[in-house]
C-alpha cells in the first residue's frame, strides 16, 4: 500500500521508512512482552493476532501524534499513508513471525528492526527509481501507476535473487 | 466459559492501557492550533492557487493568524473575504484595490507580421528555442500559444485572434499567468484602470513599425501630455504608473499608434 503511495520522492520515502522502523521495532518489543508474559501464562496464545493489531493501531496513532508535533512537514507529506501503517502487512507479519518462530525478547526486537530497515531500503530505492522514471519517455499506457507496479515487480525479482545467498 | 471471560478481560485490559497511554500522549503532544487560523482558513477560497505568495490557503491562513500577512492578502477572495477575515482578526480592512491581469500586446493576427509559418509544439515556453524566438516578427509580443491559458485556474484568459485576452470579470489577479508568460507580457493593473499601454516592445520605433501596425514606438508624446507625470517611456516603451494616473485619457488621445486603451474581452 505505502510502497506505491509514498515512493514519489526520496525524502518522503525515507520519512515513511523512519516511521515504519519506529512502529515495527516498538511493536515487536511490546508484542513480544505481551505474548511472553500475559498470553502464554494465561493460555490465551490464540488471541495473539487481535492483541497485536490493537498494539499496532495504538502505536501508529502515537507515531502520528509524535510526527504532527515534531515534524509537521513530514506529517503533511505522508498524509493518509501514515495512519495506513496500521494496515501494513509487514508490521503485523513480523509480530506474528516472531512468536511463530519462538524468538525471545531481544531476537524479536532485532528481527523487527531488520525487517523495517529492509522495508526502508526497498521504499527508498523505489523512490529513487521513480524520481528517474519521471524524465523517461514511457509509452502512454504504462504512465503513472502501471510503470510503478512493474518497477515493484522487477525489484521484487531482483531482491528474490538474494534469498538463499545470505 | 471462564476462558472467554479471561480472554475478554485480557484484551479489554490491553485496550484500556493503550487507550490511557494514547490519551496521555495526546495531551503531551497536542499541537496548539489557533482558533483564528481555523476560522480564517474556512473563509479563504481554497483553490490553493498561490496567488498570495504563500504555499496555499493553509499557509496563508497561518500567516494571517500570526499577523505576518494582511487580512486582504488573498487576491482571489478580494473584498468580501478580506472583510470576513478582518472581522475574525478584529482589525479594519486595509485598502485593497481590486486588480486584474492585463496582456501588454495588441498585435493580433492582422496587425502583427509573422516571419515564417510555425507548425511545432504549441507552447509559449518552448519559443525561446525556436529561430528568432518564434514566428512572430516582434520578439516582445504575445505569441498566442496559450501557456497562460493553461496556467489560469479560473478560465479567465483566452487566445483571441492570436493574442491572449483577459476576461476581467473572471480574473482573480492570482498572478499565475504573470509568472508563466515567458515574455513577461502580463501585468496586474487596477480593475478600474481605463488606460493601459498595449505594447511591450523594447525595439526602436522603426523596427516596431516594421513588425507590427500597433506597437509603441517610444515617441514620448504621451509623457508630454500627462499632467500627473504618470506615464514614462523607458527602453522605447511607455509605461503607466497607476499610483499617479488620474485617468484623464490625454495620453490615449495623443498616441499616434492608438495603443493606450484597455481591451475588454
Properties at a glance:
heterodimer; A: 166 residues; mainly alpha; 7 helices; 73% helix; B: 265 residues; alpha+beta; 3-methyladenine DNA Glycosylase II, Chain A, domain 3; Alpha-Beta Plaits; 2 domains; two-stranded antiparallel ribbon; elongated
Description:
The complex is a heterodimer of chains A (166) and B (265). Chain A is mostly helical. In chain A, 73% of the residues lie in helices and 0% in strands. In chain A, helix 2 (10-39) packs antiparallel against helix 6 (105-133), helix 5 (89-100) packs antiparallel against helix 6 (105-133) and helix 6 crosses helix 7. The longest helix of chain A has 30 residues, at 10-39. With 265 residues, chain B is α+β, with helices and mostly antiparallel strands. Chain B folds into two domains: 35-89, Electron transport complex subunit B, putative Fe-S cluster (3-methyladenine DNA Glycosylase II, Chain A, domain 3, Orthogonal Bundle), CATH 1.10.15; 99-262, 2-Layer Sandwich (Alpha-Beta Plaits), CATH 3.30.70.20. Chain B is 32% helix and 10% strand. The relative contact order of chain B is 0.11. Classes of the chains: A mainly alpha (166), B alpha+beta (265). At the A-B interface, helix 2 and helix 3 of A face helix 1 of B.
Amino acid at each position: 500500500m505505502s510502497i506505491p503511495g509514498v515512493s514519489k520522492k526520496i525524502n518522503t520515502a525515507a520519512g515513511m521508512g523512519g516511521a515504519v522502523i519506529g512502529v515495527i521495532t516498538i511493536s515487536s518489543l511490546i508484542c513480544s512482552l505481551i505474548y511472553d508474559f500475559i498470553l502464554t501464562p494465561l493460555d490465551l496464545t490464540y488471541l495473539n493476532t487481535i492483541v497485536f493489531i490493537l498494539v499496532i493501531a495504538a502505536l501508529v496513532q502515537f507515531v502520528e501524534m509524535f510526527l504532527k508535533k515534531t515534524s509537521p512537514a513530514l506529517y503533511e507529506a505522508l498524509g493518509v499513508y501514515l495512519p495506513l501503517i496500521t494496515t501494513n502487512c509487514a508490521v503485523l507479519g513480523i509480530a506474528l513471525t516472531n512468536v511463530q518462530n519462538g524468538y525471545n525478547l531481544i531476537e524479536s526486537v532485532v528481527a523487527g528492526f531488520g525487517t523495517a530497515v529492509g522495508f526502508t531500503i526497498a521504499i527508498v530505492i523505489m523512490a529513487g527509481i521513480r524520481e528517474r522514471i519521471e524524465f523517461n519517455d514511457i509509452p502512454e499506457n504504462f504512465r503513472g501507476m502501471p510503470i510503478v507496479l512493474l518497477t515493484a515487480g522487477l525489484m521484487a525479482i531482483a531482491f528474490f535473487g538474494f534469498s538463499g545467498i545470505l | 466459559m471462564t476462558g472467554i471471560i479471561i480472554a475478554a478481560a485480557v484484551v479489554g485490559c490491553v485496550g484500556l492501557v493503550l487507550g490511557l497511554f494514547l490519551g496521555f500522549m495526546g495531551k503531551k503532544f497536542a499541537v496548539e492550533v489557533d482558533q483564528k487560523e481555523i476560522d480564517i482558513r474556512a473563509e479563504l477560497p481554497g483553490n490553493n492557487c498561490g496567488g498570495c505568495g504563500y504555499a496555499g490557503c493553509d499557509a496563508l491562513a497561518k500567516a494571517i493568524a500570526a499577523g505576518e500577512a494582511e487580512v486582504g492578502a488573498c487576491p482571489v477572495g478580494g473584498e468580501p473575504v478580506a472583510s470576513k477575515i478582518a472581522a475574525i482578526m478584529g482589525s479594519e480592512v486595509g485598502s485593497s484595490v481590486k486588480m486584474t491581469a492585463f496582456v501588454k500586446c495588441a498585435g493580433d493576427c492582422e496587425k502583427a507580421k509573422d516571419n515564417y509559418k510555425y507548425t511545432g509544439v504549441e507552447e509559449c515556453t518552448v519559443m525561446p528555442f525556436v529561430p528568432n524566438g518564434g514566428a512572430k516578427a516582434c520578439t516582445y509580443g504575445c505569441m498566442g500559444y496559450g501557456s497562460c491559458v493553461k496556467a489560469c485556474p479560473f478560465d479567465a484568459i483566452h487566445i483571441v485572434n492570436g493574442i491572449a485576452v483577459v476576461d476581467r470579470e473572471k480574473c482573480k489577479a492570482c498572478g499565475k499567468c504573470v509568472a508563466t508568460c515567458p515574455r513577461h507580457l502580463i501585468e496586474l493593473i487596477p480593475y478600474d484602470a481605463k488606460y493601459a499601454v498595449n505594447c511591450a516592445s523594447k525595439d526602436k520605433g522603426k523596427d516596431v513599425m516594421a513588425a507590427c501596425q500597433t506597437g509603441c514606438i517610444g515617441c514620448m508624446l504621451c509623457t508630454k501630455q500627462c499632467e500627473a507625470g504618470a506615464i514614462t517611456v523607458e527602453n522605447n516603451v511607455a509605461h503607466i504608473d497607476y499610483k499617479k494616473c488620474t485617468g484623464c485619457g490625454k495620453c490615449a488621445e495623443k498616441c499616434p499608434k492608438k495603443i493606450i486603451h484597455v481591451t475588454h474581452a
